Amino acid sequence: MLCLAGFMGSGKTTIGTLLARQLAWRFVDLDDRIEEAAGLRIPEIFERLGEPAFRQIEADQLRATLGRVFEFNESIVLALGGGTYAQIGAPEFLRAAGVPVIWLDSPVEVLLARCMTMTGRPLFRDESSFRVLHAQRLPSYQQAEHRVDSSGDPAGVVAEILSRGIVAAGGNEAHLIVEKPQP
Ligand code: S3P
């Protein structure tokens, strides 16, 4: 298993999909798991339930996803949400699980340009709040054991990840004991 962390627009889904294809692993997007669990789209979760409830579902789904990975010995590339790795305890939780985390890092200008044209991100309100949130989260992303520049084309980013030997080094050697996933 491998986790992709990074801010909104860093390419977690695009790169994760390509990377999983190259590895012949399954791709899992935590945002999709959250939407399925809540039965709502992400903007609706924020509107109707609020961000604290969103974070709770996010943490539950992260734990449940890891639980399945370990229970069924699955090989997956997991794209986290933009805020997942910045939540208190998340870096420690993934480290304790032995899951390699790659921070997809791009300059904030690149992230902004990518997010400007996309809808469905409740935490993308305006440029200044986007920059503030990015700056607040940087110290969390910096805790990831691997950092890859994701401002270039996705195929090149995937090639860079594969050339680092992260998969062979961290592959399926994770050793976490997680609580039983919620049904
Ligand atoms: C969020 C990022 C989103 C999604 C939710 C909250 C964040 O994921 O989880 O809107 O806190 O930055 P993406 O980074 O995949 O857009």
Give a description of the structure:
This protein is an alpha/beta fold. The protein is 53% helix and 11% strand. It is built from nine helices and five strands. It has helices at residues 12-23, 30-38, 42-49, 51-72, 90-96, 108-116, 127-141, 154-163, 166-170; strands spanning 2-5, 26-29, 76-79, 101-105, 146-149. A five-stranded parallel β-sheet has the order 2-3-1-4-5. Helix 3 crosses helix 4 (51-72). The chain is globular, with a radius of gyration of 16 Å. The protein binds shikimate-3-phosphate. Shikimate-3-phosphate binds at residues 8, 12, 31, 42, 81-83, 121-123.
What brief labels describe this structure?
alpha/beta; 9 helices; binds shikimate-3-phosphate; 5-stranded parallel β-sheet; 11% strand; globular; single chain; 183 residues
Secondary-structure map:
Blueprint: E1 2-5, H1 12-23, E2 26-29, H2 30-38, H3 42-49, H4 51-72, E3 76-79, H5 90-96, E4 101-105, H6 108-116, H7 127-141, E5 146-149, H8 154-163, H9 166-170
Parallel strand pairs: 1-3, 1-4, 2-3, 4-5
Helix pairs in contact: 1-8, 2-4, 3-4
Bound molecules: shikimate-3-phosphate.
Shikimate-3-phosphate binds next to loops.
Strand runs, count: 5
Average residue-wise pLDDT? 92
Q: Please tally the helical runs, counting DSSP H or I stretches of 4 or more residues.
A: 9
C-alpha-based Rg, rounded: 16 Å
Give start-end ranges of low-pLDDT stretches: 169-178
> What global shape is seen?
globular
Question: Helices and strands: which structural class?
Answer: alpha/beta
The biggest sheet, with number of strands, parallel, antiparallel or mixed sense and barrel status, is: 5 strands, parallel
Q: What is the string of helix and strand elements? A: EHEHHHEHEHHEHH
N→C terminal distance: 21 Å
